[in-house]
Amino acid sequence: MSHHTSNEQLLKERAEQVPQGPFNTVPAFAARAKGAEIWDVDGKRYIDFAGGIGVVNVGHCNDRVVAAVRDQAERFLHTCFHIVMYEPYVELARRLNGLTPGRFPKKTIFVNSGAEAVENAVKVARYHTKRPAVIVFEGGFHGRTLLAMTMTSKVKPYKFGFGPFAPEVYRMPYAYCYRCTFGLTYPDCGLHCAHYLENFFIDHVAAEQTAALVVEPVLGEGGFVAPPPGYFNVLADICKKYGIVFVADEVQTGICRTGKLFAMEHYGVEPDLVTIAKSLAGGLPLAALTGRAEMMEASHVGGLGGTYGGNPVACRAGLAVLDFIAETDLCARAARIGDLVRERFLQFQERFPLIGDVRGLGAMMALELVVDRRTKKPAGAAAKALVKYGYENGLVLLSCGKFGNVIRTLMPLVIADDQLEEGLQIIEKGLAQLTIQ
Fold it and tell me: What is the DSSP letter of 399?
């Protein structure tokens, strides 16, 4: 592999060899990355506020993770857990069973991606309840495989042209207070959007036919929307009442991102099943489904699995991630980063009319950009321009949200204060430039 190629040459090669389908935020190729920084093949340095879409919460090339990967790579790369088992799989399952919210016996299986974890959550819920239907939410993102893509809300780019979709998936509004579906205001609304689930059973799908309700504690791709306190308690109580499996999709919110190991801890809710992926293995493909032992245990032998699920190298990386989190109190660091970012974002909001809403949970913070604060007309073009300003000035940024008008922060939680400040200054300068235009 040549290491002397420029971004320009590689972009040309990419256009010739790879289809346009896979989107790219930054028109550059990484040469190396460490902590919260990336250097491209032309030697340009970037502060990373994207974290590979929330995958490197413990930092790029975390020393503990790299050491564990190196050690395991010399022992064996793969035997397939279904053929010859290995200890890291069982040990990581034990750790997650103890760390996920819920004071009840749990079991864990491993797969490769968030989408696979979600598909398996539905399989487990359907087997356990003997019911077909799944309830999901507007703004939700659960992956790109057939069932996960069906469960995902946004049509373009995720679903357009890729149907027909999986049956028995029903979608209800989410607690997006800034743009309330019901035109109400919290707390006077009495959490109407959560209690609405009872109405949903009348008009959309019967409770007795519903296997699972699958929900993100904070919308990821949907715009970093964090519901008000009490929202998930209402949903979980209704699920319990009807024997519906309550699934927390913690793929983007998990592994300290929100200042707790799992975001549902903020809400005091104990989900029946939890999907975990992204930062779980510090950059390697690994996902988990952890949940109530009796639900996880329901399916027959051979009913769950996959060739690469719980790869030994990835499981060793996962154990290193959990060790690092415990030793450095990474959740506290995430909470601190969240405080710093929120404070700065609120200052930006006072200065720039472009910012309609500042929101998030812990280090999962966002700015929603609007053309007009009164009408809340989305400023998608401005978000796009800010992302572009970012990479041109050495900051990797991501947008998200229904209208593509939300700027989200997924910086590695090991980011140093001066690096964080440097990134925030680039955002501030970009916002100032957008305001002048």
Answer: E
